[in-house]
Amino acid sequence: MSSPDIAQLSEAQQTALQTYTAVTDQDPITAVPILQRSEWNVQIAISRFFDGEPASDPVAEARAAQSVPAPTSRQTSNLQYESLLAASSIPPPRRSSENVVQRIDTTATTVPAYRPPFLLTPFLTPFNLLFRLFSTVLSPLSFLVPSFLSRIFRNLFTLNSQPSRRQLPPADTARRFIREFEETYTPNPPLPFVESGFNLALDNCKKDSKFLLAVLLSPSHDETHTWVRETLMSSQLYQFLQTHQHELVLWGGSVQDAEGYQVSSSLNCTKFPFAALICQINDASGTGSSRAGDMAVVMRAVGPMPASELVAKLGTTITAQQAQLSAARAQRAEQQASRSLREEQDSAYERSLAQDRERARRKREEEEAQASAEKQAQEAAEQERRRQEQAGEWRLWRASQIPEEPETSTSNTVRLSVRLPDGNRLIRKFDGAASLEDLYAFVECHDLLSQKESVDLQVSRPADYKHDYRFRLVSPLPRNVIDLENGGTIAERVGRGGNLIVEELDGGEEEDDV
């Protein structure tokens, strides 16, 4: 069936079409059939738009009773339709792209309120005041006025057509909606509304491949309270939500809130109460500008609807979309398993690499410690060798410095017998005024003194060398350690004569006290 040709309408029909589209904001191509079914009566068409099509057409029934053939509208070709669209600058409808649900912008601090131009405000203010006065006084008689007329007058005479409640963060807005909903309707049991913003609920449903049932309410709408009590709070819908609680998320909002109003604009909501079932689409073939993976509206429930019909539509739609969502969940589970496997493999590789690095570090430290120990041993050996060389040079020098043995005994002569560690004895006379260090030097260099030719060599004292005697002289009876540190002369420390014992000292041994 071709689209109706607006250019072939009469002047009265075009006037009726303009009035109807101005009130309902509906596409002219879609509005023509409704006006034709209403016999171009604007009031009947507007009533059918807002209240829904009647089950039986009274005009058709009257015609059938009078046997009057219904007039047929003239239809044009697609070329005329395209030229009409181009002339009227009305883009062709793209139902698939309109069904795609995008994230809403929640950065605005307030909801923009519509106000008429400044020049028209003085003229509309009296009508606004009169409308508020009559609506308050005559509110008990509102059932006598058709609902569409009350909405028309409210839109014409009310200055603010959009609610302007203080905007809260999305999560707080959701909690406020749930609290006001429970205070107003007291549902028992309570409905499982999610306490999050629309964007977060949409993202979570996309991530988990779940359905999102978005419910939008307008408290000022005439059918809202009835629909909530009879349909939304019905036991059938509650049982359905409980049955599908693992795959269905319920989100609710009010158009009085900024987020709810933006969601209604995003979902192209034109009539309340409104419910939309949203899920992820995977097959983008034949969907216009939509892409695979987008969240799209797959079912709309507009206007009053019995609970059984709503549950039937939800069940049919979920069943139809269940296969692709199950495939998406399986694919996501496979991807998650692959990701987990890769993470485990990467973790095992990192642990193995860390162990290899630790072994390499320990081996390097051991090699460095071994090299350091070898270097220290070499340095110690070199120092010992150098010390021995210097000690040999010092002994040659010190042997040449030892005074000759006195030939005759005098009152100041001391005769000593020194027993060496190997059992040999050294017997010699010393000048009593000689220092105790001469006695220690004699014991240290006694083997060189027997080699006269070595002692006669002119040997200089090694520079920066301090000889360390590795023995001590001890008087046995009574035991008395004649240590070199206290100094003194031989006569002062030993007396007129005596026997001394040479005791070798270890590196860590301390000398005994007297």
Automatic annotation (TrEMBL):
GO biological process, one term: ERAD pathway
Keyword Transcription regulation among record annotations: no
Biased composition (Basic and acidic residues): 340-366, 382-392
Keyword RNA-binding appears in the UniProt entry: no
InterPro entries noted in UniProt: Thioredoxin-like_sf, UAS, UBA-like_sf, Ubiquitin-like_domsf, UBX_dom, UBX_domain-protein
Domain (UBX): residue spans on this chain: 409-479
Any one cellular-component term (Gene Ontology): endoplasmic reticulum
Pfam entry (one): UBX
Compositional bias (Low complexity): 329-339, 370-380
CDD domains found in the cross-reference section: UBA_TAP-C_like, UBX
Keywords: Coiled coil
Record region (Disordered): 329-392
Signal peptide: none
Any one GO molecular function term: ubiquitin binding
PROSITE patterns, alphabetized: UBX
Name of protein: UBX domain-containing protein 10
Gene name per UniProt: ucp10
